[in-house]
Design a protein that fits this description.
59% of the residues lie in helices and 0% in strands. By secondary structure, it is mostly helical.
């Protein structure tokens, strides 16, 4: 796939810029920053795994559905050939911009931006307060693993 990172702006570029400039306020325990970072990394790893599988699907030589069946009279399995062709195209094809690989890449970029946003906020907090920096380093090293994406780590007005 072509690398269009430079052509498309980051989905959360404005928020990340505001965080870097200190114009964004986030109220969250340092412990939550650790878990958000881990959850983002977990989901990005899962997306890369899905993309690798889709690459395998697009390159798989034979599927065992009769798509390689040698025609003898009218016994050619056209539907199997069509189905395999569609799966290959949907998995990772330059002809189909809405293929699974490309869609997952757009999800990856959003999650990567969220990770960058929260890292930026956390870095601003810990860069001005050495006690907070020490506390964060301790949390990052010692917090136990937990399943990703625990519900309600953020609170929004009215929810």
């Amino acid at each position: 796939m072509a690398n269009d990172d430079k052509a498309q702006p980051s989905p959360l570029a404005n928020l990340i810029g505001e965080a870097r400039d200190g114009r964004l306020t986030v109220r969250m325990d340092l412990e939550k920053f650790v878990y958000v970072d881990r959850d983002c990394q977990y989901f990005m790893d899962q997306i890369r795994d899905i993309q690798a599988r889709m690459s395998e699907v697009s390159r798989q030589d034979t599927w065992g559905l009769g798509e390689k069946f040698e025609p003898q009279g009218d016994r050619d399995l056209i539907s199997a050939k069509t189905m395999v062709s569609r799966w290959r195209e949907k998995s990772q094809s330059t002809q189909n911009p809405n293929n699974i690989y490309a869609v997952m890449e757009s999800h990856y970029k959003v999650i990567e931006d969220f990770q960058t946003l929260f890292r930026t906020v956390r870095e601003r907090i810990t860069s001005v307060d050495t006690d907070q920096a020490t506390k964060y380093q301790d949390l990052e090293a010692n917090l136990p693993k937990q399943p990703p994406a625990q519900a309600k780590i953020f609170s929004w007005p009215g929810l």
